[in-house]
Write a structure and sequence with these properties.
Largest sheet: 5 strands, mixed
Shape: globular
Radius of gyration: 22 Å
Number of helices: 7
Strand order of the largest sheet: 5-4-3-8-9
Structural class: alpha/beta
Amino acid sequence: MAADEQRFFITCQPHDFLTPVSYLGSINSSTMKTFIIIYCLVISAFAVSAQVKLKAGDKAPDFAGTDQDGNQVSLKQYAGKKVILYFYPKDNTPGCTAEACNLRDNKDLLAKEGYEVIGVSTDDQASHKDFKAKYSLPFPLIADTDKSINQKYGVWVEKERDGKKVWGTARTTFIIDEKGTITEVIDKVETKDHASQILKL
């Protein structure tokens, strides 16, 4: 057995699941394989839990990201306000453009009901800046390039495109109340009439 294997040990603490420490004795290959299997199961469990599907009544996960102008945007900044947090697949595509423009065209009606709008996609800051300027969008677009916000909200999913499995954003809108609670989840978005969907809630 390699020396590195002999010095491998796992402890199971609430805050520290896998800690390499000096092992006082030797362990056999079968024990090492068991440790590796446990490690893989723990990692898989975390990956699945990160993609738990949120529902009405759940606390909206906090997040912080960078918008098209490089400004930091976080959910905490909107405490005491109602938020329309909408996730969309890609800037400058037909459906995403229709959705953004519909929210833009109805911004006064949405504002009258107390809503603030935040858009999120995995496009980068430069893409968002162009998209926002091109269509005069009056709300921030967060560049979630590392997909962390998508994953927190469970919208980074596997899709099928042209017969191939690919990962991407599931078009979804979360309505969040003044206390930070999700009141509605819209996963069947009518891109050309999305504001009406929200105002009818």
